[in-house]
Amino acid sequence: MAERLEQAGAVLIAKLATNAFAGGGELWFRGLTRNPWNPRMGAAGSSSGSGSATAAGLVGFSIATDTAGSIINPSMRCGAVGLRPTYGRVSRYGCMQLCWSLDTVGPICRSADDCGLVLAAIHGADRRDTAAVDRAYVWPSSREVSTIRVGYAAQKGEDAGREDLQVLRDLGVKLVPVQSTALLKDFDLTYQLIVGMVTMESAASFDELTRQGGPLGVQGWPSWWLHGHLLSAVDYLKLNRLRAIMMEHLDNLLQTFDVYLGGELALYTNLAGLPGVAFPRKFEKEGGFLSPSAQIMVGRAYDESTLLALADACQRALGLNERPPLEKFLAEKDQILKDEEFPDEAKLYID
What we know:
Layout: H1 2-7, E1 27-28, E2 31-32, E3 34-35, E4 38-42, H2 48-55, E5 62-66, H3 72-78, E6 81-84, E7 104-109, H4 112-122, E8 149-153, H5 163-171, E9 174-178, H6 187-205, H7 207-211, H8 221-230, H9 233-254, E10 259-261, H10 266-272, E11 276-286, E12 289-299, H11 304-318, H12 326-331, H13 333-339, H14 344-350
Parallel strand pairs: 8-9, 8-10
Antiparallel strand pairs: 1-2, 3-4, 5-7, 6-7, 6-11, 10-12, 11-12
Helix pairs in contact: 2-3, 4-11, 6-8, 6-9, 9-10
């Protein structure tokens, strides 16, 4: 992937922060990765440095990894555009393996159009990652936005006033209301599924490190790996059978539309390896700071072109041009650091 970026003319500017072993959160060994909109708030994670640096304009784009939201979460928090591609769309060669059946690599940019351009440079098969495959991908997409069918969770009596739906109506897309009974609603089961996959596969990935007695005290990972060791091969097979049933249900649901609007299916699509994109929908004043409010959309496997075409059309229609007030925050840096109160978890890194 890095080789393909170099071949496309990209220049490596920096390697950015992530927390230990790419777990959720924005704490690393130098402390808190800051949100460029509010430096007293974290940038979310685990790809926190990628989200923060891109939103702040420090880099033109960044590469991030995602196991269970590590591209989408910092993009939402930082007001960037993050694309989690279909599982297998981009080679993971050279990246740390956390969970081989979930790990994906994708771009964080400031526009969906840029995400499309970066994906065009990095996608494709790689003999060094057997999960990476060649599938058709074209950017810019030639599909007319008005032909895209968008599913959304129907909210009785509220649909007419929803701003997110109005943007799509103005674009001329076909809206497909989905009744809540048709959606995958068992969040607790899905959470347990993804926790089970992460604990067992990451325990296997770092088995040698664990048996050597380290690294203890790293953001709870040892307890997760212990959990993974205590589960059995039978448990792993049962989880994967449940996962296959969920994937079949999700595939049937996505046959009725091209893109789903909303984050309700986020964890399901992670487990199913489907693409998702997050982009800023509006900015609101919150505690004296501008705070980005994000829109999530998910699509069909290997159909990032349609997903990004719709996200790009939405961004252009919204016309947001806000930028983080970095000069103001730099002037206040000393006071911000003086006022900082890190949680106990962060002291592992700061001390």
